Structures are given as structure tokens and as C-alpha cells.
């Protein structure tokens, strides 16, 4: 009996010791949390899919070309730019490049996208496909033309059949907004089934502004839908997210009694319109957009990540960190990295290409790199014409270019909302000018004459929160203390509804020459 007692006490001691043993710590350098945004800058309405071991995401480009940026990731946190869906815009389109939805089937990538049609300026849904994302997509034209507007496509497969869903009646004053669905052909390129209704927006409450941006997936016996309501964009936005579910795709659908299930706070404002993706370890993540609370509309709607968890009794999901988007959260695969968005290009020696965007309201600017400089042709004579811009990742940054002054040709750095709302700072011959275009009215704010000997000029813009700007000029290697070389200005009027300003360069004036931009640098604070 005594030996048994000793054995039993020893067993308890060993068991207790193992129970108290601390869990292994993560390997040195392993980051187990991530910070939102995971895709910084203006990246609204994100779609995400998992193909093999790689996630792909595409987002709205609004009035910017190339259309619909695509990113890739191995862990939903660290994303790399792949390229656009369309390097050249589809012939039938004119703008409003919204809500691209990626889908992958039988070795083919599909993109179902919203765009405004040239012939009637109405927004409808098109489809494009490719075998290789890096090669861009082949457009197949309009797939859904519905009354005055059809937007926000989302595609699912049910029992081997493809179905497309979309937001309808958003511009129809005679009836409420609905999310509709219909069967697609096996090749995914045309609608073959009669439309059916999934949900209707309520006339009051958080859905009174509509229901849109649906993401639909199957779990267990239910189809689930995340959808967004209220105003998506701009300083007065109040976007929110709700849940619905059904046992059959065609319905009837039941809305969650606790809606809205995700809404904004001081950290992330107006969250919504995203896609749910399931990781290999069966975790559910919602990649959606929201405005950063500090930069707000000046940096656009950014790509943020929120996790869903499940109540296995009620079979309803909830957001893991409550009803607001987490500023910091546990990483999907336990890995996260600090992304460096800074870059510097010296055109005399570097081959790096800047990810320029342009205003699709105008022809794509004619430019090339040669003779150690970025040369932009002065083919669009308006003050904001020939603009090449960068998507701003956050509101506080310094943007610098080095130029060689030209006669009769103004070379500018610009913060650009649209062609009728921008602010620029540039050199023409021996004059430095700060100017603005507000609601289409051009005004020169300040002009300064500089000595003729200064030809190689550095123009810089320091931004704070995307709203407060300091423009400055310098001459490399020379002191200019006797000259005032900086000016400060505030531009609260620049964001234009759904499109955040871009920062970049352009040429203007009566001359027919080309810019001579020697270097470009972007540095975030």
C-alpha cells in the first residue's frame, strides 16, 4: 500500500508539473498579430479568393485607370501588387469601375465587374476571363443589363450550377432595392436562368440607404450572406454590415435579428462591402473596406480584415472582436510583416516602374522613360491634364520630384481629386507657382520668380493626414536661404465622394514639349 501511495503522489506531481509548463513561445521574429489595413490605400469593395495556396484580391478603381488592381498573398496579411484586371479599358466602358468579383473555376479566373457604359452612361455588369492573372483579362462585354442599373456582382456554385447575384433597382424610384440572382451558363459568360429575389432592403433603419455588396457562402445546411446598407462613401457615410441566411440559395432568406452586425467607430469608419474566404484551417475571414479614422476620406476606403466566429447552437456567425473592425488582431496564419510602401526612382539609372494611375475621363497620358528622365507629352492642355498619379497609402507622406525647367511648359506636382478639383505646384521657365482648380475654377495662389541659373529644381510636397500640405522647392547642392521656398495650404474640399485624391505629376501650358522629370520619391511618415 505504501509503495502504491508513493507511486500515486509521484504521478500527481509529474502531471501537475506538465500542466504548469508554459506553452512554447513563438520563434524569434514570428509575428502573431497583424494591424489593419492589410491592403493600404484606396481599395474599396474588395473581392478575395483562394486558389491553391495563394489568395488573390481585387478592388474598385472608380475613375482611375488601369482598372481594378489585383494583389496576391500567402496569408491574407502580406499582399503584393500583381497588376490590373484591365491595362487597357474595355471599349464599352467610360468609368465607375466598381466592385470587381473574382471567381476561379476549371483553371480559369473570371472577373465580374461593374462599369458605366459609354452609350447611355448607365452602370451594368461585365465579365472577363484569363488563365494567367499576370497577363491581364480578356473582356467578354456586358453580362447583366437591368433597368437603370445593375451593380455588385457575386458568383456562387450550387450543385454544379453557377449563379450570379447583383444589386438591382438602386436608381428606380418606383420600387425598393433588391439583391437578385439568376443561373449562369456553364462557361460563366452569360445568364441563362430567370431572375429571383434574395433579399429586399428595408425602407427604414440601417438598410434605408439600400442593400448591396453581398458575399454569399455555404456552411453546413445554410447559405449565409453578408451584405451592406446605408451610405458607402464620403464624409457623411454610415455604411454597416448585416447577416442573412437560407436553406436554399433561392430562399426564403432570413435576416439576423441582431443586425447590423458590423459598424464603424473612431478607428475604422463606415465598414462594408467585402468577401468571406475560408482558410485551410477552417477560419472565416471577411476582407472588406473601411475608412481610417485619422486620414478618413483623404486616403480612401482601405482593405481591412475581420474574422467571423460561429455559435454552433444558433448557427449564426458573429465578428470575433465585436461589432467594430479591429485595429489589431491575431494573424490568420500567425505571420505578419511591416510593409514598406516607400520607393525612390532615379531615372538616370533605375529601371523600377512606378505604379502610375490616370483619370479615365481623359485619354491615357502619353509618357515614356528615356534620356534619363520621365517624359510626359503635353497633349492635354488643361491645367490638370496628363496627370500620372500614385494611390496614397496613408495621409502623411512626402512626395518629391526632380525636374529640369522648360520654357512654355509647366511641370507640376499635384494632389488630384478630379480634373475640376486639384492643387498643383510647379515650375515653368524661371517661375514657381502654386495653383488650384476648385469646382472647375482655376486660380493662381502664389507665383515666385527665381534666378535663371536655377534650372534643376526639386519640388516637394509634405502632406499631413491628406489635408494639410506644405509645398517646397529646392536646388540640389545650393543654398537658397534668401528666397522663400515653401508655402502651406489646407484643402478640405479635395475628396470627391467615392474617390480619394492621388498625388503625382503632370505637364501643362501652351508648349508642345515633354517633361524632364529626373527622379521621383515617395516616403511615408
TrEMBL record:
Q: Report which superkingdom the organism of origin falls in.
A: Bacteria
Region forming the signal peptide: 1-19
Among the Pfam families in the record, one is Glyco_hydro_43
Which UniProt keywords are present, listed alphabetically? Glycosidase, Hydrolase, Signal
Please give the InterPro entries that the UniProt record associates with this protein: Glyco_hydro_43 (IPR006710), Glyco_hydro_beta-prop_sf (IPR023296), Glycosyl_Hydrlase_43 (IPR051795)
Site described as Important for catalytic activity, responsible for pKa modulation of the active site Glu and correct orientation of both the proton donor and substrate, located at: 152
User: Which sites are catalytic?
Assistant: 45, 212
Q: Do you know which CDD domains this protein is assigned to?
A: GH43_ABN-like (cd08999)
Gene Ontology process terms (BP)? carbohydrate metabolic process
Q: What is the protein's name according to its record?
A: Glycoside hydrolase family 43 protein
Instruction: Give any GO molecular function from the UniProt entry.
Output: hydrolase activity, hydrolyzing O-glycosyl compounds
